[in-house]
Protein backbone atom coordinates (compact mmCIF):
# COMPACT_ATOMS: atom_id res chain seq x y z
CA UNK A 1 0.00 0.00 0.00
CA UNK A 2 1.36 3.41 -1.00
CA UNK A 3 2.25 5.82 1.84
CA UNK A 4 1.36 3.37 4.60
CA UNK A 5 2.94 5.75 7.11
CA UNK A 6 -0.09 8.04 6.70
CA UNK A 7 -2.51 5.34 7.91
CA UNK A 8 -3.29 5.84 11.59
CA UNK A 9 -4.46 2.32 12.47
CA UNK A 10 -4.59 -1.24 11.19
CA UNK A 11 -7.08 -0.37 8.46
CA UNK A 12 -7.26 2.23 5.71
CA UNK A 13 -10.37 4.36 6.20
CA UNK A 14 -11.99 5.41 2.92
CA UNK A 15 -15.14 7.38 2.20
CA UNK A 16 -17.04 6.82 -1.02
CA UNK A 17 -20.31 8.18 -2.35
CA UNK A 18 -23.15 5.68 -2.28
CA UNK A 19 -26.75 5.62 -3.45
CA UNK A 20 -29.78 3.66 -2.30
CA UNK A 21 -29.33 1.31 -5.24
CA UNK A 22 -25.90 0.34 -3.85
CA UNK A 23 -27.55 -0.65 -0.58
CA UNK A 24 -30.26 -2.60 -2.36
CA UNK A 25 -27.60 -4.46 -4.36
CA UNK A 26 -26.20 -5.85 -1.11
CA UNK A 27 -29.47 -7.64 -0.46
CA UNK A 28 -31.81 -6.33 2.20
CA UNK A 29 -35.43 -5.97 3.08
CA UNK A 30 -37.97 -6.85 0.43
CA UNK A 31 -41.59 -5.71 0.27
CA UNK A 32 -42.72 -8.42 2.71
CA UNK A 33 -40.08 -7.41 5.23
CA UNK A 34 -41.11 -3.76 4.96
CA UNK A 35 -44.72 -4.80 5.63
CA UNK A 36 -43.65 -6.76 8.72
CA UNK A 37 -41.72 -3.80 10.13
CA UNK A 38 -44.68 -1.53 9.39
CA UNK A 39 -46.82 -3.94 11.39
CA UNK A 40 -44.37 -3.69 14.30
CA UNK A 41 -44.60 0.10 14.18
CA UNK A 42 -48.41 0.02 14.08
CA UNK A 43 -48.67 -2.43 17.01
CA UNK A 44 -46.18 -0.37 18.97
CA UNK A 45 -48.23 2.79 18.40
CA UNK A 46 -51.40 1.01 19.53
CA UNK A 47 -49.69 -0.29 22.68
CA UNK A 48 -48.30 3.14 23.48
CA UNK A 49 -51.73 4.72 23.12
CA UNK A 50 -53.36 2.09 25.36
CA UNK A 51 -50.65 2.44 28.01
CA UNK A 52 -50.72 6.24 28.02
CA UNK A 53 -54.50 6.47 28.33
CA UNK A 54 -55.33 3.52 30.59
CA UNK A 55 -52.34 1.83 32.25
CA UNK A 56 -50.14 4.90 32.83
CA UNK A 57 -52.64 6.82 35.01
CA UNK A 58 -53.30 3.67 37.09
CA UNK A 59 -49.57 3.05 37.66
CA UNK A 60 -48.99 6.68 38.69
CA UNK A 61 -51.87 6.53 41.16
CA UNK A 62 -50.47 3.52 43.10
CA UNK A 63 -46.76 4.35 43.01
CA UNK A 64 -44.54 6.92 44.67
CA UNK A 65 -40.95 8.08 44.31
CA UNK A 66 -39.90 5.63 47.02
CA UNK A 67 -41.46 2.61 45.31
CA UNK A 68 -40.01 3.70 41.97
CA UNK A 69 -36.55 3.94 43.53
CA UNK A 70 -36.99 0.48 45.08
CA UNK A 71 -38.02 -0.96 41.71
CA UNK A 72 -34.95 0.58 40.08
CA UNK A 73 -32.66 -0.95 42.70
CA UNK A 74 -34.42 -4.31 42.37
CA UNK A 75 -33.73 -4.52 38.66
CA UNK A 76 -32.07 -7.90 37.89
CA UNK A 77 -29.07 -6.28 36.21
CA UNK A 78 -28.42 -4.04 39.21
CA UNK A 79 -28.92 -6.89 41.68
CA UNK A 80 -26.49 -9.26 40.00
CA UNK A 81 -23.74 -6.65 39.96
CA UNK A 82 -24.33 -5.41 43.51
CA UNK A 83 -24.41 -8.99 44.79
CA UNK A 84 -20.75 -9.42 43.81
CA UNK A 85 -19.63 -5.91 44.76
CA UNK A 86 -17.98 -4.64 47.92
CA UNK A 87 -21.37 -3.49 49.19
CA UNK A 88 -22.20 -7.12 49.93
CA UNK A 89 -20.58 -7.98 53.32
CA UNK A 90 -20.34 -11.66 52.34
CA UNK A 91 -18.08 -10.75 49.41
CA UNK A 92 -15.62 -8.52 51.27
CA UNK A 93 -13.40 -11.40 52.59
CA UNK A 94 -12.72 -12.45 49.02
CA UNK A 95 -10.66 -9.31 48.45
CA UNK A 96 -7.98 -10.51 50.89
CA UNK A 97 -8.09 -14.00 49.44
CA UNK A 98 -7.60 -12.59 45.94
CA UNK A 99 -4.48 -10.70 47.06
CA UNK A 100 -3.02 -13.88 48.59
CA UNK A 101 -3.69 -15.81 45.39
CA UNK A 102 -1.96 -13.12 43.32
CA UNK A 103 1.07 -13.20 45.58
CA UNK A 104 1.48 -17.00 45.37
CA UNK A 105 0.43 -17.46 41.74
CA UNK A 106 2.69 -19.77 39.71
CA UNK A 107 2.15 -20.83 36.09
CA UNK A 108 1.14 -24.46 35.64
CA UNK A 109 3.11 -26.85 33.45
CA UNK A 110 1.86 -27.46 29.92
CA UNK A 111 1.15 -31.12 30.76
CA UNK A 112 -0.78 -30.37 33.95
CA UNK A 113 -3.92 -32.49 34.14
CA UNK A 114 -6.06 -29.72 35.59
CA UNK A 115 -4.94 -27.33 32.84
CA UNK A 116 -6.06 -29.86 30.23
CA UNK A 117 -9.39 -30.29 31.97
CA UNK A 118 -9.79 -26.51 32.19
CA UNK A 119 -9.30 -26.08 28.43
CA UNK A 120 -11.70 -28.91 27.61
CA UNK A 121 -14.40 -27.52 29.92
CA UNK A 122 -13.87 -24.01 28.53
CA UNK A 123 -14.27 -25.23 24.94
CA UNK A 124 -17.42 -27.11 25.93
CA UNK A 125 -18.89 -24.00 27.56
CA UNK A 126 -18.13 -21.93 24.45
CA UNK A 127 -19.75 -24.53 22.19
CA UNK A 128 -22.81 -24.70 24.45
CA UNK A 129 -23.22 -20.93 24.49
CA UNK A 130 -22.83 -20.77 20.71
CA UNK A 131 -25.48 -23.44 20.26
CA UNK A 132 -27.81 -21.60 22.65
CA UNK A 133 -27.24 -18.34 20.77
CA UNK A 134 -27.99 -19.89 17.37
CA UNK A 135 -31.13 -21.65 18.68
CA UNK A 136 -32.34 -18.44 20.36
CA UNK A 137 -31.81 -16.40 17.18
CA UNK A 138 -33.66 -18.95 15.05
CA UNK A 139 -36.55 -19.03 17.50
CA UNK A 140 -36.71 -15.22 17.69
CA UNK A 141 -36.66 -14.91 13.92
CA UNK A 142 -39.36 -17.53 13.53
CA UNK A 143 -41.58 -15.80 16.10
CA UNK A 144 -41.10 -12.45 14.39
CA UNK A 145 -41.88 -13.76 10.91
CA UNK A 146 -44.91 -15.75 12.01
CA UNK A 147 -46.39 -13.06 14.27
CA UNK A 148 -45.83 -9.84 12.35
CA UNK A 149 -46.06 -11.54 8.95
CA UNK A 150 -49.54 -12.80 9.76
CA UNK A 151 -52.13 -11.41 7.29
CA UNK A 152 -54.67 -11.36 10.12
CA UNK A 153 -52.56 -9.06 12.32
CA UNK A 154 -51.60 -6.89 9.35
CA UNK A 155 -55.29 -6.50 8.42
CA UNK A 156 -56.21 -5.67 12.04
CA UNK A 157 -53.75 -2.74 12.10
CA UNK A 158 -54.96 -1.49 8.72
CA UNK A 159 -52.02 -2.47 6.54
CA UNK A 160 -53.97 -4.76 4.23
CA UNK A 161 -56.53 -2.19 3.14
CA UNK A 162 -56.63 -0.45 -0.22
CA UNK A 163 -55.87 2.90 1.41
CA UNK A 164 -52.64 1.55 2.90
CA UNK A 165 -51.46 0.26 -0.47
CA UNK A 166 -51.96 3.60 -2.23
CA UNK A 167 -48.63 5.39 -2.38
CA UNK A 168 -48.69 9.03 -1.43
CA UNK A 169 -47.38 11.42 -4.06
CA UNK A 170 -44.74 13.88 -2.96
CA UNK A 171 -45.85 17.42 -3.66
CA UNK A 172 -43.64 20.30 -4.65
CA UNK A 173 -41.50 21.75 -1.91
CA UNK A 174 -41.53 25.41 -2.91
CA UNK A 175 -39.31 26.49 -0.04
CA UNK A 176 -36.69 23.91 -0.95
CA UNK A 177 -36.80 24.88 -4.62
CA UNK A 178 -36.28 28.53 -3.67
CA UNK A 179 -33.35 27.63 -1.43
CA UNK A 180 -31.77 25.57 -4.21
CA UNK A 181 -32.19 28.40 -6.71
CA UNK A 182 -30.67 30.89 -4.26
CA UNK A 183 -27.70 28.63 -3.59
CA UNK A 184 -27.16 28.03 -7.30
CA UNK A 185 -27.21 31.77 -8.03
CA UNK A 186 -24.73 32.44 -5.24
CA UNK A 187 -22.35 29.75 -6.46
CA UNK A 188 -22.53 30.88 -10.08
CA UNK A 189 -21.82 34.47 -9.03
CA UNK A 190 -18.79 33.46 -6.97
CA UNK A 191 -17.08 31.16 -9.49
CA UNK A 192 -14.68 33.90 -10.62
CA UNK A 193 -14.11 35.15 -7.06
CA UNK A 194 -11.63 33.86 -4.52
CA UNK A 195 -7.94 33.31 -4.14
CA UNK A 196 -5.23 30.68 -4.13
CA UNK A 197 -6.98 28.52 -1.52
CA UNK A 198 -10.18 28.35 -3.54
CA UNK A 199 -8.21 27.56 -6.69
CA UNK A 200 -6.30 24.75 -4.95
CA UNK A 201 -9.42 23.13 -3.46
CA UNK A 202 -11.28 23.44 -6.76
CA UNK A 203 -8.40 21.83 -8.63
CA UNK A 204 -8.22 18.94 -6.15
CA UNK A 205 -11.94 18.27 -6.42
CA UNK A 206 -11.79 18.46 -10.22
CA UNK A 207 -8.95 15.94 -10.37
CA UNK A 208 -10.74 13.63 -7.92
CA UNK A 209 -13.82 13.60 -10.14
CA UNK A 210 -11.73 11.82 -12.77
CA UNK A 211 -11.59 8.59 -10.76
CA UNK A 212 -13.94 5.78 -11.74
CA UNK A 213 -14.93 5.34 -8.09
CA UNK A 214 -15.01 8.70 -6.41
CA UNK A 215 -13.98 8.93 -2.79
CA UNK A 216 -11.29 9.98 -0.36
CA UNK A 217 -9.23 8.05 2.14
CA UNK A 218 -7.46 9.10 5.30
CA UNK A 219 -4.08 9.47 3.61
CA UNK A 220 -5.23 12.58 1.78
CA UNK A 221 -6.58 14.06 5.01
CA UNK A 222 -3.31 13.21 6.76
CA UNK A 223 -1.40 15.18 4.13
CA UNK A 224 -3.77 18.12 4.60
CA UNK A 225 -3.16 18.02 8.34
CA UNK A 226 0.60 18.01 7.74
CA UNK A 227 0.33 20.97 5.39
CA UNK A 228 -1.83 22.85 7.88
CA UNK A 229 0.69 22.19 10.67
CA UNK A 230 3.43 23.66 8.48
CA UNK A 231 1.54 26.95 8.12
CA UNK A 232 1.91 29.86 10.55
CA UNK A 233 -0.82 30.06 13.15
CA UNK A 234 -2.41 33.14 11.57
CA UNK A 235 -2.68 31.44 8.15
CA UNK A 236 -4.47 28.30 9.28
CA UNK A 237 -8.11 27.73 8.41
CA UNK A 238 -10.56 26.32 10.90
CA UNK A 239 -12.28 23.04 10.12
CA UNK A 240 -15.61 24.82 9.64
CA UNK A 241 -14.05 27.25 7.16
CA UNK A 242 -12.42 24.41 5.23
CA UNK A 243 -15.68 22.44 5.04
CA UNK A 244 -17.57 25.48 3.76
CA UNK A 245 -14.91 26.12 1.11
CA UNK A 246 -14.98 22.49 -0.06
CA UNK A 247 -18.77 22.60 -0.25
CA UNK A 248 -18.80 25.78 -2.34
CA UNK A 249 -16.09 24.59 -4.71
CA UNK A 250 -17.78 21.24 -5.16
CA UNK A 251 -21.05 22.97 -6.00
CA UNK A 252 -19.29 25.16 -8.54
CA UNK A 253 -17.98 22.04 -10.29
CA UNK A 254 -21.39 20.38 -10.19
CA UNK A 255 -23.13 23.42 -11.66
CA UNK A 256 -20.60 24.50 -14.30
CA UNK A 257 -17.45 22.40 -14.35
CA UNK A 258 -15.81 23.88 -17.46
CA UNK A 259 -16.50 27.44 -16.41
CA UNK A 260 -15.16 26.78 -12.92
CA UNK A 261 -11.94 25.25 -14.23
CA UNK A 262 -11.39 27.98 -16.81
CA UNK A 263 -11.76 30.53 -14.01
CA UNK A 264 -8.87 29.08 -11.96
CA UNK A 265 -6.26 31.43 -13.53
CA UNK A 266 -8.35 34.38 -12.33
CA UNK A 267 -7.93 33.17 -8.74
CA UNK A 268 -4.15 32.73 -8.88
CA UNK A 269 -1.84 35.37 -7.41
CA UNK A 270 0.98 36.92 -9.42
CA UNK A 271 3.57 35.42 -7.06
CA UNK A 272 5.01 32.43 -8.95
CA UNK A 273 6.44 30.93 -5.76
CA UNK A 274 2.97 30.75 -4.20
CA UNK A 275 1.61 29.10 -7.33
CA UNK A 276 4.39 26.49 -7.28
CA UNK A 277 3.72 25.83 -3.60
CA UNK A 278 0.00 25.28 -4.26
CA UNK A 279 0.75 23.04 -7.23
CA UNK A 280 3.11 20.98 -5.07
CA UNK A 281 0.31 20.54 -2.51
CA UNK A 282 -2.01 19.33 -5.27
CA UNK A 283 0.55 16.80 -6.50
CA UNK A 284 1.22 15.52 -2.97
CA UNK A 285 -2.46 14.91 -2.24
CA UNK A 286 -3.33 13.45 -5.65
CA UNK A 287 -0.40 11.00 -5.68
CA UNK A 288 -0.92 9.79 -2.11
CA UNK A 289 -3.01 6.85 -3.32
CA UNK A 290 -0.31 5.43 -5.58
CA UNK A 291 -0.40 5.10 -9.36
CA UNK A 292 -2.77 7.55 -11.03
CA UNK A 293 -5.46 6.41 -13.50
CA UNK A 294 -5.25 7.83 -17.01
CA UNK A 295 -8.17 10.23 -16.55
CA UNK A 296 -6.76 11.55 -13.28
CA UNK A 297 -3.37 12.08 -14.93
CA UNK A 298 -5.06 13.97 -17.78
CA UNK A 299 -6.88 16.25 -15.37
CA UNK A 300 -3.73 16.84 -13.34
CA UNK A 301 -1.87 17.83 -16.52
CA UNK A 302 -4.63 20.29 -17.36
CA UNK A 303 -4.37 21.88 -13.90
CA UNK A 304 -0.58 22.09 -14.24
CA UNK A 305 -1.04 23.87 -17.56
CA UNK A 306 -3.47 26.35 -16.02
CA UNK A 307 -1.06 27.09 -13.20
CA UNK A 308 1.89 27.38 -15.59
CA UNK A 309 0.40 29.59 -18.31
CA UNK A 310 -2.65 31.18 -16.76
CA UNK A 311 -4.55 30.43 -19.98
CA UNK A 312 -7.75 28.35 -19.72
CA UNK A 313 -7.88 25.28 -21.92
CA UNK A 314 -10.34 25.51 -24.77
CA UNK A 315 -13.77 24.14 -23.79
CA UNK A 316 -15.43 21.35 -25.67
CA UNK A 317 -17.56 22.23 -28.65
CA UNK A 318 -20.85 21.49 -26.93
CA UNK A 319 -20.35 23.99 -24.11
CA UNK A 320 -18.19 26.62 -25.82
CA UNK A 321 -21.06 29.08 -26.19
CA UNK A 322 -22.27 28.60 -22.60
CA UNK A 323 -18.81 29.20 -21.18
CA UNK A 324 -18.17 32.24 -23.37
CA UNK A 325 -21.50 33.77 -22.37
CA UNK A 326 -21.10 33.05 -18.67
CA UNK A 327 -17.50 34.25 -18.14
CA UNK A 328 -17.44 37.87 -16.89
CA UNK A 329 -14.46 40.17 -16.99
CA UNK A 330 -12.03 40.04 -14.11
CA UNK A 331 -11.60 43.42 -12.44
CA UNK A 332 -9.17 45.09 -10.08
CA UNK A 333 -10.76 47.38 -7.54
CA UNK A 334 -8.99 50.63 -6.78
CA UNK A 335 -10.18 53.64 -4.90
CA UNK A 336 -13.61 54.30 -6.32
CA UNK A 337 -12.74 52.64 -9.61
CA UNK A 338 -13.16 49.17 -11.15
CA UNK A 339 -11.09 48.40 -14.19
CA UNK A 340 -11.22 45.20 -16.25
CA UNK A 341 -8.16 43.00 -16.46
CA UNK A 342 -7.80 40.59 -19.36
CA UNK A 343 -5.22 37.83 -19.43
CA UNK A 344 -3.55 37.70 -22.81
CA UNK A 345 -1.07 35.34 -24.28
CA UNK A 346 1.61 38.01 -23.79
CA UNK A 347 0.77 38.12 -20.12
CA UNK A 348 0.94 34.33 -19.93
CA UNK A 349 4.25 34.32 -21.74
CA UNK A 350 5.63 36.89 -19.33
CA UNK A 351 4.64 34.72 -16.39
CA UNK A 352 6.16 31.67 -18.00
CA UNK A 353 9.45 33.46 -18.67
CA UNK A 354 9.52 34.80 -15.11
CA UNK A 355 9.11 31.28 -13.82
CA UNK A 356 11.86 29.86 -16.01
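Sequence proposed for the structure above (356 residues):
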Amino acid sequence: MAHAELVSGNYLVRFEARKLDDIRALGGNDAEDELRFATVAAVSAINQGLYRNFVGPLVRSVTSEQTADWLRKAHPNRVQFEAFSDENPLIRPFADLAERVRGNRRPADAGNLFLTIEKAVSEQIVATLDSYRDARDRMTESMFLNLYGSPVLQAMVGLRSDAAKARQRIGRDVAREAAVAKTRAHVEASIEHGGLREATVRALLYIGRGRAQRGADERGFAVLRQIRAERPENRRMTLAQFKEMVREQDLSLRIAEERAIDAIPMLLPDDVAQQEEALDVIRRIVSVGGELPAEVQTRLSRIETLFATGEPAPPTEEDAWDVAAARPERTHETRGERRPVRRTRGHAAARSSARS
